[in-house]
Amino acid sequence: MEMQNKIHQKFLACFGEGGTMYASAGRVNLIGEHTDYNGGYVFPGAIDKGIMTEIKFNGTDKVNLYSLDYDAATSFGLAEEDKPAEAWARYVFGVCRETIKRGGKVAGFDAVFAGDVPLGAGLSSSAALESCFAFAINDLNQNGIDKFELAKIGQSTEHNYCGVKCGIMDQFASCFGKKGNLIRLNCKTLEYKYFPFDPEAAGYKLVLIDSCVKHELASSAYNKRRASCENAAAAMRKNHPDVEFLSDAKRLWLEEVRADIPEEDFLRAEYVIGEVQRVLDFCDALERGDYETAGEMMYQTHFGMSKLYEVSCEELDFLNKLARKMDVTGSRVMGGGFGGCTINLVKKELYKPFVDAAVEQFTAKFGHAPKVYDVVISDGARKL
Ligand code: GLA
């Protein structure tokens, strides 16, 4: 409510009369990391931290934007050459451009926006921003673009305007998120299924520990991982033409091409093939109410992301090890990696001792405190 009020006050001050409010969400992902662009499964949910905007047509062909978090304003036109200089505004510009490319109408508008998704924590603040504007622009212009295409508008914005060759998971979660539900998405067929998720009822809590580490070269390292996966899939396709994505491959087929590809690509692919299966096993365990087995798989994912995919870092490995030592049910680096958070599934009675120990020991070792976020699985993009 407080954020909504601040946005509204600013909107009145900048643009006179008020407009319409929209919101969208960041996401967590329980399991299935770096599987989306490999045609595998992911298992995310939208969270109670997101982006909000107040927006109104202005009768011109220009967009006037104000970011409360950056306390900065900018304006841009809607043609390709009008790309704004500010990195934060490029997300909104990209969404406008991608909407137009799909035949949608984008009339000039004024907007003020703000968010409470921590930046660089791996909670997809950028997807929340893209989805919020993709949804709002679609709704206001009555374009009738469906929700999958709205998610793809956000993804293409990352590809074409922000330099990250990301998969569909973050924008999907942000557009399709539903309170109390995780969503398993098959990123190849785009079939999805909601899974009611209420860890508290089963005696568990979800907590994120943010290492506050951000790696400058994260997007180029991410794109490099993707290229390794595509290379491994292409090598297997020679013997097995059905391998469209890495997720179509079997472990044995990867073994066949081991000598033909760089060892690094082999290790990346080995992780992904294992991770795709783990999502299915994790969901089965969850449906049985077997949180302990599910948690164990989170540790397996961490191992793979750290040792095979190499997207963890010293700080995240430290948090993961501490979780293991304290008998936390499940723990792993979440999102793209290269810094950010661990996601932890922890028994209620262990919550406080774990969080206290993590803060104390991490601070002692690295000289800065980690941040702790409790998350609630919530709704995605919507009109308020
Ligand atoms: C980032 C990307 C997603 C996905 C994850 C890793 O969040 O935006 O598409 O690849 O990393 O699972």
Strand line-up of the largest beta sheet: 5-4-6-3-1-13
- What name does CATH use for the topology of the largest domain? Ribosomal Protein S5, domain 2
What is the count of β-strands? 13
Choose one word for the global shape: globular
**Ligand inventory:** alpha-D-galactopyranose
Gross CATH architecture of the largest domain: 2-Layer Sandwich
Number of domains: 2
Rg, alpha carbons: 21 Å
How would you summarize this macromolecular structure in one to three sentences?
44% of the residues lie in helices and 22% in strands.
Structural key phrases:
alpha+beta, four-stranded antiparallel beta sheet, 11 helices, 384 residues, binds alpha-D-galactopyranose, six-stranded mixed beta sheet
Characterise the protein shown here.
The mean pLDDT is 97. Helix content is 44%, strand content 22%. A hairpin with a 5-residue loop joins β10 (330-333) and β11. The protein has two domains: 2-198, 2-Layer Sandwich (Ribosomal Protein S5, domain 2); 204-374, GHMP kinase, C-terminal domain (Alpha-Beta Plaits), CATH 3.30.70.890. It is globular, with a radius of gyration of 21 Å. The strands form three sheets. A six-stranded mixed β-sheet has the order 5-4-6-3-1-13, with helices on both faces. The chain has a four-stranded antiparallel β-sheet with strand order 10-11-9-12. Strands 2-7-8 form a three-stranded antiparallel β-sheet, with helices on both faces. The chain has eleven helices and 13 strands. Bound molecules: alpha-D-galactopyranose (GLA). Alpha-D-galactopyranose (GLA) binds at residues 33-34, 36-37, 124, 166-167, 169-170, 335-336.
